[in-house]
Amino acid sequence: MILKKINIEGLKREDPEIIPSLERRDFLKLGLLITGVFAGGSILSATSIVGKAFASGREFSEKYPYKPHYSMVVHQDRCIDCELCMTACVKTNNVPSYGYRTQVLEREDRKAVERTREFIPVLCNQCNNPPCVLGCPTKATYKSPANGIVMMESKKCIGCKTCMAACPYNARYFNEETRAVDKCDFCFNSRLSKGEKLTACAAACPAKARIFGDLSDAGSEVFRTVHNLEKTVWVLRPEAGAKPNVFYTKG
Amino acid sequence: MRMKQLSVLIIILAVAMVATVYEGRSVAEEEMVGGGEIIYSKPVKAVLFSHKSHAAMGLDCNACHDKLFQMEALSAQNKPDFTMKGLYDKKYCGSCHAKDGMAFASDTQCARCHIGTKGFNKASKQAKK
Known about the structure:
The structure holds 2 protein chains of 2 kinds.
Chain A: H1 21-35, H2 43-51, H3 58-63, E1 70-75, H4 84-93, E2 102-108, E3 117-123, H5 131-135, E4 141-143, E5 150-152, H6 162-166, E6 172-175, E7 180-183, H7 200-204, E8 210-214, H8 221-226, E9 233-234, E10 246-249
Parallel strand pairs in A: 1-10
Antiparallel strand pairs in A: 1-8, 2-3, 4-5, 6-7, 9-10
Chain B: H1 2-31, E1 37-40, E2 47-50, H2 51-56, H3 84-88, H4 110-113, H5 116-128
Antiparallel strand pairs in B: 1-2
């Protein structure tokens, strides 16, 4: 085997520091094109997002060019756990007392400086790669090809709870009355399909902690937040590979 | 001999009594500085105001009473301007908790004062005990 002689001295360096800004920008645009979404931060976070956390590959967006592409951005530091969102959700979607479609988690860090408490609103992440849908044996839960919402067709549900076990976000509960698993559908059945623009929780939030909108609309607040390189945006449990449509940020 | 035993007993008893009284006072003091811990539940659940931590910073009663807050606990939350907007207008807590005030501004560190519905429930559970 003959190895080509490599001129080490003449090689171009390829680390991020020396990528010229124009090239960088092209790269970021490319990231946007491929994924539809990337999070703010460094060029490194953008690369990691393309494959892992945020949206899906080109194949996916070609197959499901959602319009609208419903999404939520949660401003985690704004949540004060007043739970008006939960109250509104329960009322709007007839959620029984033992169930939930959205929750507010609490985290306390006694060693933190100044503020030691943090509240984290959670709900179904309407994943692009939903493990619940993959797990459902009867196709009772499915991802809407129209708007990307992960829906339930409760009459097909056999109550096996595979979806509940598969969900990385603990976003599902078994409804004893309907004998079917129930979950957040971004208020599609109760509000969006009737012409409302916001989910009940987003409309009820007094602190603008939950921003709901259309990720395919470049003018929407969700788009402008998620695509803002000045902002750090993340998703919960990216390692699950579910590619969620609920994003988190602070500030 | 018997006398000596008795006096030892008396001394022990006396020490124990003094200790109990002292302990009792310190516990009471810890729980009640001024009006104790005030938990507002309106207009949202819930906000914790600690007399203790504010007094520990060297504020005396008339720093806030009666101008910013009436002596009667929770009377502020019945006023229509007891809102974040009111605070931004330098009313109530916003008198000090402002950008140019002496404490962190009202529009920062939300969950430092807001203990939420969970905090409210925890506190009322504790109060029942």
